[in-house]
Design a protein that fits this description.
Strand order of the largest sheet: 5-4-9
Strand content: 5-15%
Structural class: alpha+beta
Number of strands: 12
Helix content: 25-40%
Largest sheet: 3 strands, antiparallel
Radius of gyration: 41 Å
Oligomer: single chain
Length: 477
Amino acid sequence: MSAWTNFGTRRAGGEPVHPWRYALARRLLREPHRPAITAADPNREEADLSPVMGERGVTGLDVRWGVVFKEYSSRLQSLSDRMTAYEEMRRSDSALAAMEAIITLPIMHADWRVDPGDDPELADLIAQNLFTGLTHPFMDFLRVCILAVLYGFSIHEKVFEEKEDGFLGWRKFADRERQTVYKWIFDSTGGLAGFTQYGRNPQTGNYVYVDIPVKKLLVSTWRRESNDPEGLGAFRQAYKHWFFKQTFEEFAAIRIERQAGGMMKAEGPPEGYTKTEGDAMLVQLKRMRTAEDASMIHPPGWQVEMLSLGPADVPFETHIERQHQSMLQCVLGQFVGLAQGGDSGAWALSRDSSSFFLMSLEGVADWFTENMNRYCIPQLCRYNKAAMKKYPQLAHGPIGVRDMDALARTLWRMYQKDHPLPGEIETYMRDAMGLPPAPPGGLAADQPPEEEPPTEESPPKQVPPTGEESTNDNNTE
């Protein structure tokens, strides 16, 4: 207990206390102690101009023994189980097949080129190597890289070889199966340093371990977070909808079979039957199907009939269609399923959705070119040339089909008779519309008609004079 708790007009020993001292003590008890006001410390960060170099923190990615533990679902915990489930989804469901087609085909149909940097000759060699000099088509390599949008990542090993004139180029981009990733290899800062592959050698049939460094790899990761090389693909987000769709379709098939085919029922004789007779009748009932060879042996005293379980309509159509559309929505492709099944949609909604989807494909194509321009082309340039300030870059044309009618109307408003259509715009329009190139002298309609040289049979045409020199027979004196 505090010394001021029993403070009174007398001390503990009975001695009196001065009134002023007693009043001061009571005031101190009623008002809390207030600390002294001090000036704020100056902002030392503004005055400190020396940067802190290096990395201090970690990515936070849960990696143990080279295996990434980021998936919460036990069915998809391991990379092998996850890729097996994705492969089943891709091969068995129409929505996922459409998802792959609408993503890969428009990007593959675009025009691809290599823009020159400081060395146009080197850019031509890279373009020739990439588009025609590989042991596999460039479109196959492009399609597999784009599949990272669905699976989360894709892996290619860069295989080099000596080309003509001493040029070191790519022989191929060898595809590496995702399920063969035994473990990832990271450096001290959490960056990817390579991976260990465990897979079967197709030539020998034996399983082998192979360590591949990152300098020989092109790891295309979609939606990389915390430097996770496995990424997050659309198949993972569509997995739940695919699972429920499979379940609803199975329930619907069972309902159709039981209700459309009915269920057989047998009633034994009144005097009873043995267990052997009952089992024999049950076997016949289980084998009863509506077919051309449907038949049975009717034992005496038994009554056999078919029970009707109600209408055979499928009440799961709405649920199945909803899961189908949800899978397409994972890649903004819901316009594919409009007006199908129990769903419906207006043409304007489909047009807006498809336009937004094409814009997203532009982002996917830009993502692919960014990977090539960061991890492949500069490396090849350094192998062939000592120093360059501006490297060649892979680029692409517009993605998807353009509305040629709207584009033509826009050009008609921009360029009238007084402003002729520039040659590069005409060339672009001809390429976009699939028309043949313009003749060397321009459009044939714009060329003046060729006049034949005069001969004795056909003398040159007499052009009447103009202006004041013109005469009129009616005005002749």
